[in-house]
Design a protein that fits this description.
Number of strands: 17
Number of helices: 19
Structural class: alpha/beta
Distance between the termini: 35 Å
Shape: elongated
Largest sheet: 7 strands, mixed
C-alpha cells in the first residue's frame, strides 16, 4: 500500500501481495455448510484413528482434518499419545469431557460401563451414535463425585469454556483421579500470559475478538498454564513433547504439523500421573540418555588448541614449512595441495544438506547479504560440521572461494541419530525423513566425518578448500601462507580467542558467526558476551538475528 503525496519516483523493488477476504466476526464463527474438497495427498498419509489416507484443509490449515472421521490435528495427536502411553487399556474407569466420537467409541469398547462421557450440553449428543453421554457441569457437579473414581481423565479444548475458577476445577478433577491415574488435556494457547474475563456483560463479538470463539471465557498463556498445572499437579514437566516419543515419520504420516511436535500450542497435550512420574517423562528420560547435547562433542586436544598462542604456533610450524616469499608454499593452490580431498566412492552415495541453523531459521541471511553486497571472494568458515552452511555461502556468490576449517575428527553418527528426537536439535533435521537420517548415520560410521562432509560439497570441489585443524591455530596457518581473507565466519568453540586471532591477523576482514543465543549449562550466553566485549574493545557495532551475528566498523 502506498500513500502518494506529490510526485514520487517509481519503485522497481520486487514485491508480493496477498489479499484475503475477511468475513464479519459473526460469520467467521459459523462453519460453512459446504465441506472443503478432498485434495490429492501424499500416499503415505494415514490417520492413526481410522487408518484413512485422505485429509482435507480446514480453517486455513492444510491436511487439518481426516476426511473419514473428521478428526483434526489435536484429536489425532491425543489418540497417538493415549495409544503410546498406556491410556488404551481394557477395564479402566474413564471420564472424558466433551467426548470426540472416535475416542468415545474406543473407550466404550475397552471399558464398557466404566467409561463415562460427560458434557454440560449432553442433549447435543442424543442424535449421535453414542447416546450414553451424561450431563456434567464442571462448575457445580464435580463435588458430588467420590474421591478416586477414575483411572483416566481426558479432555480437548474444554477448560476455555468453563465460566468459573479453572484452578478449582482442576483441583476437583485431581481429587476424583485415582492414585496412579492419568490426566490428559489440551487447551488453546496464545502468548505467555492467560487472558480471562468471566463477566456476563462481555458480548459474543467481544469474546470472539478477544478469545477466538464467542463462547470462550479465556485463552491460556503458555507460561501461566505451566504455573497453574504445577500448582495443582505438582512439579512438571507436564507438557508432552511428541518429538521425544514418536518418530518424525509417524508424525508426518498422521499429518501432525511441525508446530505441534514440540513446544506449547493449541495442539499440545499436557499430562499428569497421580503420585508418579508421567509415562511420557519416563520415556523421554530413557531416550535422553542416547540423545545429543545441544552442541557437538569437543574432541580431545581442543582445549590445548584453544590455549595456543602465537609462539606455540610458530614452534609448531617452523619457517621451512612456509619460507617467507616462497611462491611454492604460498597461495590457494599450495593450500589445496597440502590439504587434499579424501578418497571416497563419490558416485555411490548421494550428498545431503544438514546445517545447524534450525532448518533455515537461524538468521544466516544477514551473512548471505554481506557476501553479495561486499562481493566477498575468499571466506573462511571456522567449524564446518557436515557442510550445510558452506553450501549457503558457495551458492550465494559464484565467485566465492571458501576455506573450511574443522578437524572433522571423531564420529558424529550417534549425534545425528539423536537429533531426530531431541526437543531443540530436531529442527535441524526436520527436512529429512527418518530413513535419510539413518542413512547419514551409516555413512558417518562407514566413512567418517571428513569424507561425508566433503561428499556433500563435491559440486564445489574447485572452490572449497578443507583445512583439518583446530582454530585459532588454523588462522595462523593461513596467515603464514599469505592467504588473503575477506570474511571469517566463526562457528567453533565458545570463547573469544577466535575473534582476537581473526582481528589480529586479518584486521580488514568481515567478522561474523553463529551461536549468538547459545547458552551454557548455567544459562549464560557466553559467545554473545564475548562478542559484546570484543566489540566494545575495538569499536564495532553488532548486528544480530536469531543465532547469527555480524560486526560492522
Amino acid at each position: 500500500m502506498v500513500r502518494r503525496s506529490g510526485v514520487q519516483e517509481p519503485c522497481y523493488t520486487n514485491a508480493t501481495f496477498v489479499m484475503r477476504k475477511v468475513a464479519s466476526p459473526e460469520m467467521r464463527s459459523v462453519h460453512s455448510a459446504v465441506q472443503p474438497p478432498v485434495q490429492e495427498r501424499a500416499k503415505d498419509l494415514e490417520c492413526p484413528i481410522c487408518k484413512g489416507s485422505e485429509y482435507e484443509d480446514f480453517n486455513g490449515r492444510q491436511n487439518a482434518r481426516c476426511s473419514t472421521r473428521r478428526a483434526v490435528e489435536r484429536n489425532r495427536l491425543m489418540w497417538m499419545i493415549l495409544d503410546r502411553l498406556g491410556g488404551f487399556e481394557p477395564g479402566k474407569r474413564v471420564l472424558q469431557l466433551a467426548p470426540e466420537p472416535s475416542l468415545a467409541r474406543k473407550f466404550s469398547e475397552l471399558s464398557g460401563d466404566a467409561y463415562h462421557g460427560a458434557e454440560v450440553n449432553a442433549e447435543r449428543f442424543q442424535k449421535s451414535q453414542n447416546k450414553s453421554i451424561r450431563m456434567l457441569d464442571l462448575c457445580t457437579d464435580l463435588a458430588a463425585i467420590p474421591d478416586a473414581s477414575y483411572d483416566v481423565i481426558l479432555h480437548n479444548h474444554v477448560l476455555e469454556h468453563v465460566p468459573c475458577d479453572v484452578r478449582e476445577v482442576l483441583r476437583q478433577l485431581d481429587r476424583i483421579l485415582a492414585p496412579g491415574g492419568l490426566h490428559f488435556l489440551s487447551v488453546p494457547i496464545r502468548g505467555e500470559k492467560t487472558d480471562e474475563d468471566l463477566s456476563p456483560d462481555l458480548t459474543d463479538a467481544e469474546r470472539l475478538a478477544r478469545f477466538g470463539e464467542k463462547d470462550h471465557m479465556r485463552i491460556f498463556g503458555s507460561s501461566d498454564l505451566r504455573d497453574l498445572l504445577q500448582e495443582v499437579w505438582g512439579t512438571g514437566p507436564h507438557l508432552i513433547e511428541p518429538i521425544e516419543i514418536f518418530d518424525r515419520d509417524d508424525l508426518r504420516r498422521a499429518a501432525i504439523p511441525t508446530a505441534a511436535r514440540q513446544g506449547a500450542s493449541g495442539h499440545s497435550v499436557f499430562h499428569y500421573c497421580k503420585g508418579a512420574h508421567p509415562p511420557a517423562v519416563v520415556l523421554a528420560e530413557a531416550r535422553s540418555k542416547s540423545a545429543p547435547k545441544p552442541e557437538r562433542t569437543i574432541a580431545p586436544g581442543a582445549s590445548a588448541a584453544v590455549r595456543t598462542v602465537r609462539n606455540e604456533v610458530d614452534a609448531s610450524y617452523p619457517a621451512e614449512d612456509a619460507p617467507p616469499g616462497s611462491q611454492i608454499m604460498l597461495g590457494l593452490e599450495a593450500l589445496r595441495r597440502d590439504n587434499p580431498w579424501p578418497d571416497f566412492p563419490w558416485e555411490d552415495h548421494a550428498p545431503f544438506k544438514l546445517a545447524l541453523d534450525a532448518n533455515g531459521d537461524g538468521g544466516r541471511d544477514i551473512v548471505l547479504r554481506e557476501i553479495v553486497a561486499k562481493d566477498v571472494r575468499l571466506m573462511v568458515e571456522v567449524g564446518c560440521f557436515l557442510g550445510g552452511s558452506a553450501l549457503h555461502w558457495l551458492t550465494a556468490n559464484p565467485d566465492l572461494n571458501l576455506i573450511g576449517v574443522d578437524p572433522w575428527d571423531g564420529n558424529w553418527a550417534d549425534y545425528v541419530l539423536g537429533m531426530a528426537h531431541h526437543p531443540s536439535m530436531s529442527l535441524h533435521v526436520e527436512h529429512l525423513s527418518d530413513t535419510e537420517v539413518k542413512r547419514i548415520a551409516r555413512l558417518l560410521s562407514d566413512y567418517g566425518n571428513f569424507a561425508v562432509a566433503l561428499n556433500n560439497l563435491r559440486d564445489f570441489r574447485h572452490r572449497f578448500y578443507p583445512v583439518r585443524r583446530f582454530s585459532p591455530e588454523a588462522l595462523y596457518y593461513l596467515r603464514r601462507r599469505e592467504i588473503p581473507v575477506d570474511m571469517i565466519y566463526i562457528d567453533a568453540f565458545k570463547h573469544r580467542a577466535d575473534l582476537d586471532a581473526a582481528y589480529a591477523l586479518y584486521p580488514d576482514a568481515i567478522l561474523c558467526g553463529d551461536d549468538w543465543l547459545w547458552p551454557d549449562e548455567s544459562g549464560c550466553f557466553v559467545m554473545q558476551e564475548a562478542i559484546k566485549e570484543f566489540a566494545r574493545d575495538h569499536g564495532f557495532e553488532i548486528e544480530a538475528k536469531r543465532q547469527t551475528w555480524v560486526l560492522h566498523k
